[in-house]
Prior knowledge:
Helices cover 47% and strands 8% of the residues. It has 277 residues and is α+β, with helices and mostly antiparallel strands. It has two domains: 17-122, no CATH class; 129-270, no CATH class.
Amino acid sequence: MSLSIPLKSSDIDPYDEDSRRQWIVNYLKAEGVYRQSSQAVSYDRRVEEVAKNISDNDRLTRVGHLYFEYHVDKAMWQKTFNDSEDGMAPEWPWSESPNPNDMSQGLSHMYRQWRIDYNQPVDLAESIIPFPTCMVPQSSLEKRKEIWDVIYGDKPYNKGAVGPFELALPKGIEFHRLLLGEGNEVFDNLCQLIGPLLIVSWTVVDNKVSTLILGVNPLFNVSTKSLFVHLSVRRLWVHLLRWLNAIEQGYEGTIVEHLEEALTETISNAQSDDFDV
């Protein structure tokens, strides 16, 4: 077997996910065992395999994104070669392994979701990431723009809305108290209040929280025809706008307190619903 690239390369940082995966793809192509059409299915199956192994053998309730994806890639490497013609897998290119508690690239939401799907316990408070780095799976700009275009068309942004469902935070806002809370209690309650479909994340500039971003959890497949989902995004967006406006006017309630007040009023008004058809 002749390879066009060496098995190990000092140019590749094994902890750099993009570089590592590109190197693996190049290697598999050189070996003649790369099948792009089966990569997505293989990835999903390896996620299941790695998550189960971590849960059953390591007994960990959470791991870092870096650790989880590294071991998914390693499992895919092994499986790809095991399924090849000669069934022999070369040695995994890197000897070192990330620490499962390394959160430098955030919490592994793939592993956390697997635990939720299989009714395994998760610590909601621990899954929320402390300021200033937001490790909630942020909704992509492309998907937010898609939903924005459906709802608002070419309506321009302004000084508050600096992008599709992205809000500039007022200077001096008490972010810890109003959005995180002690032990991330406020943000934990926010996540439970809005449910798993919608996510609120934030950006950090110069070690300060700069903007809030609202979107759909990337774990859910939402199309341009998912209008009920789009309207849910708009409803929460309007609540966020009203909350920030109230904050600038002197309101001191957290985002959760504001939403609970608004939802209580909405539920109260539901008593007047007419069921006649």
